[in-house]
Design a protein that fits this description.
The structure holds 2 protein chains of 2 kinds. Chain A is about 35% helix and about 20% strand. Chain A is α+β, with helices and mostly antiparallel strands. Chain A has a 5-stranded antiparallel beta sheet with strand order 1-2-3-4-5. In chain A, about 30% of the residues are buried. Helices cover about 25% and strands about 25% of the residues of chain B. Chain B contains 4 helices and 7 strands. The chains are: A alpha+beta, B alpha+beta. Chains A and B meet through strand 1, strand 2, strand 3 and strand 4 of A and helix 4 of B.
């Protein structure tokens, strides 16, 4: 036989914590109210890349990898991009996807490779270019914020 | 498979090299409506080399005829390619005998090649902004 000890005040406290946790879980991933207007258009453009066939660039370019498509969607869904202008989205010949932003003299290329790895190149027009790898979302966020002068 | 990996010394630094691009993919719009070439334009499946044609030996129309209907031509100076640490190797292909590919002199990491491709795109953007010769056929 199992016995459960219940202390009314502790139960109430625990219930409250559970409710808070439940709320956090429910809402933490929802961003639609803050999504920029260009996001849907960008998702559509990314989806359209699926239709590209081999040699789409006339130099033997590979079709875009499903992993790259799903990874870039996750990336855009989880980054704070409300202040960002519309990115230029392009397939890459090795099966990845690239995004390009230019804000003032700052230029940013983010690449999601066919295996899902993420790299970026930050450049000042007429100046230096600095490449980097984004292994985590905060690293990707920082790369993105750089183009707005925030990071 | 490429057999010869020697820089073509008959191609001068001032020679223009032609490359096909797809404008909707390889150019990005700016807020003022202008479009700029992006570094992705010089990327290829095998990241270490990229194809071009020697402008004084072939017409842009011939190069375009070997590509896709939506493509256009951009031109880059051979000297700008060499300055980044590449040799220009002759490699006649099915399209034309003027075909060459640029190959790094030494081993380059992928991130270095990404930087180089962007630098080449900026060379072309800068030449257009400066009003210098951009029509590939002017070099023939």
């Amino acid at each position: 036989m199992a016995y459960t000890l219940q202390f009314p005040n502790l139960f109430g406290l625990e219930r409250s914590r559970q409710d808070q946790d439940s709320n956090r879980r429910q809402w933490s991933g929802v961003k639609s109210l803050q999504s920029p207007a260009w996001l849907k258009e960008t998702y559509d453009r990314i989806s359209a890349l699926k239709t590209l066939e081999e040699n789409w660039d006339s130099y033997g370019g590979l079709p875009v990898a499903d992993v790259a498509i799903s990874r870039i969607r996750v990336l855009l869904s989880n980054l704070d991009i409300e202040d960002m202008p519309t990115p230029h989205v392009a397939p890459l010949p090795d099966g990845g996807i690239g995004m390009h932003w230019r804000v003032g003299v700052r230029d940013l290329e983010i690449e999601v490779e066919a295996d899902g790895s993420i790299h970026y190149l930050q450049s000042i027009i007429g100046g230096e270019s600095v490449p980097g790898d984004a292994h985590t979302l905060p690293e990707a966020q920082c790369a993105l914020d750089w183009v707005l002068g925030k990071c | 498979m490429h057999q010869s990996h020697q820089d073509a010394d008959d191609i001068n630094d001032d020679d223009l090299l032609l490359r096909r691009i797809t404008p909707s993919i390889h150019t990005a719009p700016l807020p003022d409506g202008k479009r700029i070439l992006v570094g992705f334009a010089f990327r290829e499946k095998h990241n270490h080399e990229f194809s071009m044609y020697v402008a004084r030996e072939v017409s842009p129309e011939k190069v375009l005829s070997c590509g896709l209907p939506t493509q256009e031509i951009v031109a880059v100076r051979a000297g700008d390619v060499r300055k980044l640490g590449y040799i220009i190797v002759r490699d006649p292909d099915d399209c034309d005998a003027s075909h060459v590919f640029a190959k790094p002199v030494g081993i380059k990491s992928k991130s270095q090649i990404v930087k180089d491709c962007r630098a080449l795109a900026e060379c072309i953007n800068a030449s257009k902004a400066g009003g210098s010769k951009t029509n590939p056929s002017d070099n023939r």
